[in-house]
Amino acid sequence: MSHNKRTILVIDDERDIISILSKYLSDEGYLVHTLTGGNKAAQAAARIVPDLIVLDVKMPGKDGYRVKAELNQNQVTANIPVIFLSSSVSTLDKITGLRLRADDYVTKPFDILELLARIDAALNRHEHYEEISMKDELTGLPNANFFKKELAIAFNMAQRYKRIFTVGFIDIDRFKEINDTFGHLTGDCVLREVAKRMELALRSPDVLTRYGGDEFCMIMREATEEKARVALNRLKTGVEENLFQGRNGDGKFPVSVSVGMVTYNNNFTSVEELIALADENMYRSKNENAAGRGNHPTASIRFPADELKKRIFFKTPREFFEVKNKGAHND
Predict the structure, then answer these.
(1) Which residues partner with 217 through β-bridges?
(2) How many CB atoms lie within 10 A of CB 91?
(3) Nearest CA-CA partner of 59 in 41, 80, 82
(4) 217-255: per-residue pLDDT in tens?
(5) What CA–CA distance (Å, rounded) separates 216 from 172?
(6) CA distance 57 to 262
(7) Of 102, 133, 164, which closes a domain?
(8) Which residues are catalytic?
(9) Do β-strands 104-107 and 207-212 pair in parallel, antiparallel, or remain unpaired?
């Protein structure tokens, strides 16, 4: 049976248990990592980021409960499903494990077929809940929860392995005016169309999410500042080069976006600091270019001015629509 190489981390102090679980899980198609004892378990889980952890409770040094508590404190590992293994049949021990947000509690000696079934059920349940909680219903993109999870993983990998990545924040210009002029249903259509156009302009390794409202976020893995600049310019052009169609004969109108970005370096000490700077850069770009935004489709990306390709656009959807109706013409 193939499980598309879902990864299981087995943590136990009994080598016989590790050997048995490794064999059966591998035979089921899982990719198995093992660790003897709990002293470095939380760090290993953050490095591997498995799909599920089978965690023994009674271990010398750091027991399974302490390991689970540490997993809960790290954004990278907090939501990884955990199945406790324990020789204790005490109800109090089971309650302790479940209060730590364990997904299941299996007593030793266990039936291997039952344990495999519980692992499969826990994975399927987790994937179902994650799909619901990580998806934006309007655009179909991953949502802010997914962005924060993926960013935490990227940040952890960058710190540990000296990897590089860039975060981009994209905001639709004058979105309130679009809603006020054409209505919220048209606003929803614009959000969906912007998402669609940006997806078409993505590099394959990039992660695009809807952060909320009219704001989108990107994680560009292995992207230097130069590569991110090219990617964001392509994305911005993809959004802006064609007019947007209103609903029910509302006509067509332009939509532009403002973009801010920040590339990871060793000076960042937290994910929150990186998000705050990317968001600040985006809003600074929006404010600096508010007056001339219509003349510079890429001006809201904070790059040298001589790199910008000038093009004439109306400043607002309302202005475009009103002038178009009057028969005006702009080159």
Answers:
(1) 169, 209
(2) 8
(3) 41
(4) 999 999 999 999 999 999 999 999 999 987 776 678 999
(5) 9
(6) 42
(7) 133
(8) 214
(9) unpaired
